[in-house]
Design a protein that fits this description.
flat; eight-stranded mixed beta sheet; 2 domains; Alpha-Beta Plaits; alpha+beta
Length: 360
């Protein structure tokens, strides 16, 4: 029995729900209800279409099998030929439906805030953090996303102590969420005269930006807003007037800074970043309460774990969560992240489907 067959009941329930939503949508007159039903209809439609494709393929296979058994020699041969093609296509059709059945992160399509910080390794760690920042910027360009650097603290030789960027586009968080964690680099530093290989690290955090009517309440009395002179070694990256804005959320102690635009824009952007951090904190609190994510699961968001090693002498990149090793480091560091992210997404889908089969 295939995984599709084992989950047939859940697939049928989704189809039944879609039909009820469609019927209710045709009769509804309340604007808010129409919007809500419309969203659910749009979410369920791809799954329903995928299930219909599987059922149509299976029905056709049954007809062809009958023809192959009872028809004349010429019809039987034609039926066998078409059956071979359908048998090859059916697992792919079933997998498409199962992927759509798997539960999705409600922030999958959200934009994101990307934070990169140099870790252990001194100046070399800062240089590596800068490499990661440029890698994500190039990847965003390849995906057609908008990449805005909101805050950066640089070192004298081009390294990055820490940087915060806003990445805007469809599905940014769903794609970049796998990047949260400790990234380790092994290479001969530019600052090393003896040619020895050093190991350094940088941390990456990816936070979903709250969308639509997400309720993140920020009371004016709970925040302190300061303006200051933008700073940093970046020269052209920063303003030379008192336009930078720092907002401190007193109850949580969260501090956000935006220093690369006008004061008015900085205030708006800093508030967005604060809402994003508070939203992420609430996500993590709820996840902890549910204890839904098992230790070591892909996409757990545990930022304390080493997730990837970049070995420059061997041109090797290894993602430790799924034991994936590739020898295209020079391409990855230039923004060709898709092979790594595709593998991580596939593993996450497999884990979700396995949980579904277990009835979780």
């Amino acid at each position: 029995m295939s995984a599709y067959d084992r989950l047939e009941r859940r697939l049928s329930q989704a189809v039944d729900r879609f039909e009820r939503v469609e019927a209710r949508l045709a009769a509804a007159s309340d604007g808010a209800e129409i919007v809500k039903l419309g969203q659910e209809h749009a979410e369920l439609k791809p799954l329903v279409e995928a299930v219909a494709a599987v059922r149509a393929a299976r029905a056709e296979m049954a007809n062809l099998e009958a023809m192959a058994k009872d028809g004349d020699r010429e019809m039987a041969d034609l039926a066998e030929e078409e059956l071979k093609d359908l048998r090859e296509r059916l697992p792919e059709l079933e997998q498409t439906a199962l992927i759509l059945l798997a539960p999705k992160d409600k922030d999958e399509s959200a934009s994101a805030v990307l934070e990169i910080r140099a870790g252990t390794g001194g100046e070399e760690a800062a240089l590596f953090a800068g490499d990661l920042l440029r890698m994500y910027q190039k990847y965003a360009g390849k995906r057609g996303w908008k990449f805005e650097l909101e805050d950066i603290s640089e070192t004298g030789i081009g390294g990055v102590k820490e940087a915060v960027a806003s990445v805007t586009g469809k599905g940014v968080f769903g794609r970049l969420k796998y990047e949260s964690g400790v990234h380790r680099v092994q290479r001969v530093p530019e600052t090393e005269a003896g040619g020895r290989i050093h190991t350094s690290a940088a941390t990456v955090a990816v936070l979903p930006q709250p969308e639509g009517d997400v309720d993140v309440v920020i009371d004016d009395k709970d925040i302190r807003i300061d303006t200051m002179r933008a700073s940093g070694a970046g020269g052209q990256h920063v303003n030379k007037t008192d336009s930078a804005v720092r907002i401190t959320h007193i109850p949580s102690g969260i501090v956000v800074i935006s220093q690369l635009k006008s004061q008015h824009q900085n205030r708006a952007q800093a508030m967005l970043m604060l809402r994003t951090k508070l939203y992420d904190a609430e996500r993590e609190r709820q996840a902890s309460e549910r204890a839904a994510e098992r230790k070591g699961q892909v996409g757990s968001g545990d930022r304390s774990e080493r997730i990837r090693t970049y070995n420059f002498p061997q041109g090797r990149i290894t993602d430790h969560r799924i034991n994936l090793t590739l020898y295209n480091l020079s391409e990855v560091i230039e923004g060709a992240l898709d092979p790594v992210l595709d593998a991580l997404a596939a593993e996450e889908q497999a884990l979700k489907l396995a949980a579904l089969e277990r009835g979780e």
